[in-house]
Design goal:
Blueprint lengths: L5 E2 L8 E5 L8 E4 L4 H13 L4 H13 L3 H15 L8 H9 L2
Antiparallel strand pairs: 1-2, 2-3
Length: about 100
């Protein structure tokens, strides 16, 4: 990968640049150039409403937008399957609702 800082190939217009190191414990940084001033103001306002820094707000928005990949979903589901393996949950909510409606 090279030495720190290492720059990935940039987009054609250099608006988004990913910068990261080759150590496993270093998180990548993203530099976004040319962002509309009105968008920055809205992001700052949103961050303030949510009691986060601009960095924290943008980080959360990007992570949410990126979603979760299939492997991560599978890993989470496997974890919950192990957690609940052999456990029974009775009565079911359907039974409870029916019982409640009959009162």
């Amino acid at each position: 990968m090279g030495k720190w800082p290492f720059h990935l190939p940039q987009t054609e217009d250099d608006d988004i640049i990913l910068i990261y190191g080759n150590w496993r414990n270093i998180m990548p940084d993203i530099l976004i150039r040319g962002l509309n001033a009105a968008a920055v103001r809205r992001l700052k306002a949103k961050a303030k409403r949510n009691r986060r820094s601009l960095q924290g707000e943008v980080k959360l928005l990007l992570e949410q937008a990126a979603g979760t990949d299939k492997q991560e979903v599978t890993r989470i589901l496997d974890k919950w399957k192990k957690e609940f393996a052999g456990k029974t949950f009775t009565p079911s909510s359907v039974e409870l609702i029916r019982e409640d409606r009959q009162r």
